[in-house]
Amino acid sequence: MLYIVATPIGNLKDITLRAIETLKSVDLIACEDTRHTKILLDEYGIKTSTTSYFQHNRFAKGEYLLGLLKQGKNIALVSDAGTPGILDPGYHLINLAIEQDIPVTAIPGPTAFIDALVLSGKPTHDFIFAGFLPNRTLARQNCLKELSKQKRTIVFYESYHRILATLEDIHKVFAGREIVVARELTKKFEEIKRGPAEEILSSFQRQSPRGEFVIVI
Ligand code: SAM
Fold it and tell me: What's the structural domain count of the chain?
């Protein structure tokens, strides 16, 4: 069985009893970053062996893990944060397992965009999750223009490198629309900012933003 195990998005206490049980009982844990996951495993006294499975080794390592699964081993897949498969290499391994008829199950838990969507106060019954917007300015602006045709709540991820540029682009495309920026969810400096993009932008310009972000429009 391949177990897709959700892990915390910041607060180490956000892990389910089933996730801990599963991580203890499997033969191997495939981690996006073994050093990062070790902190979680140490916290819960989990001694299971780990191996790396990340963006750049996903093809070769995916085949290797698939071989082990075919021999009857149980493997848990975890990412650096949240639910594997949501914007991380888990997607590739899940598909390999599905193609090869290997049973896959998920141990559900945190994922940053659901936390942000719920905290945003925006309609949650009909929304679009847009992942990460393109890096390049023109492509990002075009993507936002396309998204502006949506009547649904729009949710996407952003990194601190691009947050100011993205807020500028949101201001250009959605001028005046109230948006929500959720930063460092579940962590010590969790912060939710609400208002037009230009207001949030100027507050971040006063104090350079750090951390991880989810934007809700
Ligand atoms: N698998 C993860 C999940 O389930 O949410 C997402 C992985 S993706 C590579 C990383 C992005 O998720 C970050 O750049 C940020 O936009 C968002 N993210 C992850 N943890 C977060 C947190 N604690 N607060 C805000 N955003 C977070």
Answer: 2
Whose tokens are 């949101």? That residue is 170
Report the separation in Å between the CA atom of 70 and the middle of ligand 1, taken as the mean of its atom positions. Answer: 31
Domain boundary among 107, 132, 156: 107
Which letter does DSSP use for residue 2 in this model? E
CATH number for the domain spanning 90: value is 3.40.1010.10
pLDDT along the chain (217 residues), means of 10: 98 98 98 97 98 93 96 97 93 95 97 98 98 96 97 97 96 95 97 97 89 98
**In angstroms, what CA-CA distances link 111 with 14, 84, 141, 201, 209?**
11, 9, 26, 25, 21
Residue finishing a domain among 80, 107, 134: 107
Residues 40 and 93 in one domain: yes
How many angstroms is it from 44 CA to the middle of ligand 1?
22
